[in-house]
Amino acid sequence: MKRIIITGLRGGVGATTIAANLIQALVQLEESVHAIDTRSENLMSLHFALDFSVKDGWSKRLLSGESWKKAAYISNHNLSFVPYGLLTVDELKTIKQEVSSLSHGLLNVFPSQPEIENEWQLMLLPSVNELDDIHTALLDSADMVLCVINADIQNYTYSQQNASFYCFNQRHHPYFIINGYQPLSENSVDLSLVFKQELAEQCLPMLLHHDTSVPDACSQLSNVVKYAPHSQISKGINELAFWLLAHFAAKTMEGI
């Protein structure tokens, strides 16, 4: 099983959108894949047309002593997805305490499954500044950590000054992907080049464009890869899916 963990440098960079759409791109390449939302906002459900009245999720199941797999949902586009679930304030406190008490945090909830072959698991984690001890072992278990960034001065400043980002980068060696790229903006173009130079081989070659198709797709309770397959953002996400396939194929060849 290939475990891909997706996070964002900071809130609002588009990590949820990329995670929700990457599963669609991989499925279109005939890969077996499921996505898990570990963010309490539960926003990934919007991309999978999950009715707002549905409160179920892996966190609800954990509170009742059940496996996270029992919260799995199949979308109307035949995508496998596990939502976080909708919790009350008291339930949120309880789930945080319960996960914190586990020896390896969220890894105890979502253990690695090496017995499952040819399966992709995409996990959406909170942004870098929200990561704490419950996420460490889970991040260590990943086959790849993918961090979403925007080419703007706020993201660049954060990458230069934030201590939690420095520790995250040093320990987990993530790959970075630039989202929200705007080719008509000098700042966006310049900072994309700066990020690519400073992050070097950690920065993926493709750029994910700022695209109005994303909110349009959400308003139609769909993902943008399915809703607007010829949009710039969809093309970028498809490139990302191809890159992942090539990357892991190369690693497999190296291991032979």
Written overview of the protein:
- Helix 1 (15-28) packs across helix 11.
- The protein is globular.
- With 256 residues, it is α/β, with parallel strands linked by helices.
- The longest helix is centred in the C-terminal third of the chain and has 24 residues, at 232-255.
- Strand 3 and strand 4 form a beta hairpin.
- Helices cover 44% and strands 18% of the residues.
- An 8-stranded mixed beta sheet has the order 3-4-2-5-1-6-7-8, with helices on both faces.
- The protein has a single domain (2-254), classed as 3-Layer(aba) Sandwich (Rossmann fold).
SSE blueprint and pairings:
Layout: E1 2-8, H1 15-28, E2 32-37, H2 58-63, E3 73-74, E4 80-82, H3 89-101, H4 106-109, E5 119-124, H5 133-140, E6 144-150, H6 153-161, H7 163-172, E7 175-181, H8 186-199, E8 203-209, H9 213-219, H10 224-227, H11 232-255
Parallel strand pairs: 1-5, 1-6, 2-4, 2-5, 6-7, 7-8
Antiparallel strand pairs: 3-4
Helix pairs in contact: 1-11
Organism: Aliivibrio sifiae
InterPro entries: Cellulose_synthase_operon_BcsQ, P-loop_NTPase
Protein name: Cellulose synthase operon protein YhjQ
